[in-house]
Amino acid sequence: MRIRVHLMFCLFLFIALSLFGIVRIGITAIIDHPALDAIRLGIIDGLIQDGLVLAQDFDFEFQSAQGNMSTALAIANHFNTDAFDIIVAISTPSAQACANVIKSKPVVFSAATDPVAAGLITALGKNPGNVVGVSDMTPVKTQIQLMQWVIPGLKRIGIMTNPGEANSTVLKEHAQAACSELGLELIEVVGTNTSEMIAALSAIVSTIDAIYIGTDNTAASCIESLHRIAIAQKKPIVCADISMSRSGGLIGYGFDYYAFGIDTSHIVSDIIRGKAPSEIESRLIGPDSLQLLINLDYAAHIGLKIPETLLQRASFIIENGVERELK
After folding, report:
1. 120 within 8 A of 131, measured Cβ to Cβ
2. Longest dimension (CA), the chain
């Protein structure tokens, strides 16, 4: 059966290249925000760096679901029925929509936090079927420990979470386990859309010591509003994504999502060159892609001193409105 599926994918791509001379890639994300945009750019640049020529060897169409799962499913159906050869789904919700709908074309997921829990694959490594990709499971406990180190008297952490996002639920569970171990109280700040999330933080911000934002796409798309609420109450925000932190966090410790896109592009390139998804390992992004961003302007505004030892580890510093890369 696996050989039959493999031959089907190879034949499919051979026909696409032979008759049309170009592979059409459908790319989708659950919403527009800097991290997911960086992945998309990294995928395209990675394919070009791998020797493929845009508009000659491959072309792509991008569609955003604008935070709506019904739209995500409609996009998946469009990619399934139209003449697309490979589908790339950025974020857990978009990957779930595509994997549920598309069964006869390769589906490559990118930045799906826990692809096993999300039902995309049965395990990391090689899997039967048409789905393969890269996970962005972030080091939650380390991020919580970082908060404990930097924020004096930290006791109650508010976590921004959308229960409709499997990735958000997984990170909340990891954060709860870390807080229990570290003697901290975790308070859920719940919103199924940006309006609900903003209202939820406004209602609770005075009762918490700090805010943790994982890889929740809803929070990422309204980070500027969350920042305004937090900074007005002199509350620090720590993000698991430096792209998000650039738009409103005190500290960001997470992956370089452009590099994440480059890594994802290698899977897409392998498929274009004839490999079946079942021959490629699904994997976690490596820890060497982790970066640390510290916003000293934010720290000064809320009267927080950042330890010098942490500043020495920073990849990026924002000071006087200017971002500097340190390493």
Report:
1. yes
2. 66
Q: How far apart are CA 255 and CA 260, in angstroms?
A: 7
201 vs 62: CA distance, rounded Å? 32
Q: Strands of 86-90's sheet, edge to edge?
A: 58-64, 23-29, 86-90, 107-110, 131-135, 283-284
Give the model confidence (pLDDT) of 184-216 as tens digits. 999 999 999 999 999 999 999 999 999 999 999
Task: Determine what percent of the chain falls in helix, strand and coil, rounding each to the nearest 5.
Answer: 45, 20, 30
CATH assignment of 2-136+257-286, among 3.40.470.10, 3.40.50.2000, 3.40.50.720, 3.40.50.2300: 3.40.50.2300
pTM: 0.84
Q: Which CATH superfamily is domain 140-255+289-325 in?
A: Response regulator (3.40.50.2300)
